[in-house]
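Notes, p. 3: input format for complexes.
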Amino acid sequence: MPKAVILVVEDDAPVRNLITTALKTNDYKYIAAPTGESAVMAAATHNPDIALVDLGLPDIDGVEVIRRIRSWSGMPIIVISARSEADDKVEALDAGADDYLTKPFLVEELLARLRATQRRLAYLQTDSAAGAMFQNGALKIDFAAGCAWLGGEELHLTPIEYKLLCLLARNVGRVLTHTYLTQNVWGAGWESNVQSLRVFMATLRKKLDAGPGAPQYIQTHVGIGYRMVKVE
Ligand code: CA
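Output follows (232 residues plus calcium ion):
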């Protein structure tokens, strides 16, 4: 298998070195970019597999870098940011980022995110992701028939719960923001419907809960949104 190429967008040299050293010792290739403009250029010329993007850059903002890359590429983007405020992460996710990591982070955590992203990429190339049938662990969705099962038992979902489940499944591995989910379920103008979203998400999760020890399919990101996890 060819080594994955990671674009590292970070203006802080010590942090950049920490990341590139970790990548090198873990058998990744990398391209380092210290500014936003050089990052957009590197993304276009080298077509990396995954981009790690710091939000606070000296020239253009990391969110702008994400928007520009997203205008032509679907490459997974993981935001690395010192900004702990949820709003910055939400903005980056709505601009098209897939995931985020808050500084300071452990190298192990970064490597785990990269592995999860690679699993997602590999999964997206399978029939299960491209076709009308979705499978993730014991969870199965037949998009064409509009049915879902958990461990062979059909799930009895309300139309809204089913819509939410499909959205999360079609974006498995990505953090979806409250705005993204409410807009796609209720339409534009309903972004403030976060309270309803919470209620529907709680009932959906209860229906997806197969008891102690069973995988948790949906992760909550407080103040940000939800993610369906790709289970082994
Ligand atoms: Ca920075």
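The CA atoms of residues 70 and 122 lie 20 Å apart.
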